[in-house]
Task: inverse folding
């Protein structure tokens, strides 16, 4: 069987994109060391398996391409949600920082200890929605001994003011939800 996690990541660069005046995204987070760190963490998740790829041979033939494959994350941790890998890594990274643990060799199993769950029990993880993101954050929080909730977006905007959606998700994970905010309940 071939390794589903190749040591090299390949991609195609669009040379025309480099000629644009647009600000380019920072790709330093995608170094070999960084991706190995994240990949090794994901391998410690319960029942972890590489994402199966569904082959779409008829569509490929119709479009005149050699192959089309689509990731199927619908069975990951029984959630039918595709964001569990990112949510679990983000929460464990944040908890490691908050609990003064080394982020170097993160392991999901390490966070299953009764001692760490006790230390994490008063931390509330906030999800921006109750969709894929919310399911993933709630699942990971429960596994880690934390609380989770997803306030209505209008309440988030009322308390913190307008912000880009991507920033909203980061802000909610980085800060404990203010339990005294009007109209917001804590715990789940």
Result:
């Amino acid at each position: 069987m071939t390794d589903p996690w190749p040591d090299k990541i390949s991609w195609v660069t669009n040379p025309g994109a480099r000629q644009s005046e647009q600000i380019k995204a920072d790709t330093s987070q995608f170094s070999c060391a960084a991706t190995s760190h994240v990949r090794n963490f994901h391998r410690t998740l319960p029942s972890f398996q590489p994402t199966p790829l569904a082959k779409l041979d008829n569509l490929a033939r119709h479009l005149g391409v050699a192959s089309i494959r689509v990731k199927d994350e619908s069975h990951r941790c029984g959630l039918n949600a595709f964001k569990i890998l990112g949510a679990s890594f983000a929460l464990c990274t944040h908890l490691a920082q908050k609990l003064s643990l080394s982020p170097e060799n993160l392991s999901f199993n390490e966070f299953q200890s009764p001692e760490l769950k006790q230390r994490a029990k008063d931390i509330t993880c906030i999800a921006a929605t109750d969709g894929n993101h919310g399911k993933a954050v709630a699942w990971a929080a429960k596994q880690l001994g934390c609380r989770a909730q997803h306030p209505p977006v209008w309440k988030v905007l009322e308390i913190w003011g307008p912000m880009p959606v991507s920033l909203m998700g980061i802000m909610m994970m980085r800060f404990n939800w203010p339990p005294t905010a009007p109209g917001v309940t804590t715990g789940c």
Confidence is low (pLDDT under 50) at residues 164-188. Residues 38 and 89 are 7 Å apart (CA to CA). The chain is about 40% helix and 5% strand. The first strand starts at residue 53 and ends at 55.
